[in-house]
């Protein structure tokens, strides 16, 4: 953040230099104010260089402007209109999609969205856990419930609905939804497959697991299969290092009533394909370790130590305690 701020200040300074009116052509140098407030003699050639630097930075500046957009639907609509005119890039990588909102036919603020009758009962139960003047404390569980209801992702209309329920400005909900990666703001599959990419799983072959999934399903990371059933994402450590490699499967196929989130551990490329095909057929794969000789996190073949009372350390008199 600090680096981006400094870069932005630098280019603002260059823009100020580039936009200054030309001095008398007979004068080869002129005095301008530096950011630190000191007088600096800057020749016309330097001003020309500043203009060229700004030109080279225009593409990245447009992207930075998009990133700095608040999640305000009004600002986003303006950016979307500019994109349609070709003023800015109409495509963006998935990482930048985490930072701001662009209207689309299926995700725009003027769409009607509300919790189902069954889920409104859950909403009231969630809010009952907080004092009436701290309803905003329920934003995270309400976003999670909205995501379950909406098939695995949260549209901006759902965020606006939550803002009304907890009686805060919509930006307060946008801030939470864009901060936590657990909230998907683009469409995912009914089965969202999340591959752990942290070091223990990577050492144990998580990259091969992910490559196998992407090749088998014919998609790229964060894309949805043509039948809408599957998407593949990445998560950081999910706490199953002893059973690495592993994936988590968020099952949105049955709505919020049948939503499940299960771990599948000790995977091999062959086994992860079998799990995908079981899900495709509507079956429920056995969750947890997929190693036939392991139980939960225990060693293969059963325990080999600690069959009896452990001996105390010889350097300590436990009876004296």
Biggest sheet features: 5 strands, mixed
Unreliable segments (pLDDT under 50, ≥5 consecutive)?
Answer: 22-40, 69-79, 81-96
Name the helix and strand elements from N-terminus to C-terminus, one letter apiece.
HEEHHHHHHHHEHHEEEHE
Strand-residue fraction? 5-15%
Q: What would you call the quaternary organization?
A: single chain
The strand line-up of the biggest sheet is 4-3-5-6-7
Outline of the structure:
The chain is an alpha/beta fold.
Q: What order do the helices and strands come in, and which of them pair?
A:
Blueprint: H1 2-19, E1 30-33, E2 39-42, H2 44-56, H3 58-68, H4 73-84, H5 94-97, H6 117-127, H7 139-149, H8 156-166, H9 170-179, E3 191-196, H10 199-203, H11 206-217, E4 230-235, E5 247-251, E6 260-265, H12 269-280, E7 288-289
Parallel strand pairs: 3-4, 6-7
Antiparallel strand pairs: 1-2, 3-5, 5-6
Helix pairs in contact: 1-2, 6-7, 7-8, 8-9, 11-12
Features of the shown structure:
321 residues, alpha/beta, two-stranded antiparallel sheet
Structure explained in plain terms:
The chain is α/β, with parallel strands linked by helices. 40% of the residues lie in helices and 10% in strands. A hairpin with an 8-residue loop joins strand 5 and strand 6. It starts with a helix and ends in a 32-residue tail after the last strand.
